[in-house]
Every structure is written in C-alpha cells, then in structure tokens.
Amino acid sequence: MNVLGIAYRPDGSVGSEVQRYGGIWSSRKDEWKEFTKTPYVYENQFDATPGTYKLTVVVSAGGRRIWKVRKTLAD
Q1: pTM over 0.90
Q2: 35 — alpha (psi -120 to 50), left (phi > 0) or beta?
C-alpha cells in the first residue's frame, strides 16, 4: 500500500509532502481477508510554515488508486 500526501500553497506550489511505500500488501487472499476485518489506522505528520494549504492524500495498492481525499488546512 502506498500513501502520498501533498500540501499545496494558494499559488499551487508544494508546501510539504509525505510518502510511505509498502508494508502491508499481501497477495494471499486469506491474509488480505483477515487484514480487512478491522480498520487500518495510518498516522503521519509533515512540517509546513503557518498558512492555508490544500491537502491531497492518495492511497494506492497494486497500481490502482483506492482512495483520494482533498481538504483545506488553515492555521
């Protein structure tokens, strides 16, 4: 599973980003079924100067995007 989060400044430039690759993917159906029985919690943080950002987070696995969200962050 891959996680990419990018915080964009109002001018469209990148203010900060965080990435995580690998770790929990399994091709065995029984392992995947067991893993998906409970919610997966992912926590991370990034450094950015105070201001307003548009945060985009994308989660992908096996070359497919499985989740994407966009939120505005303000200090």
Answers
A1: no
A2: alpha
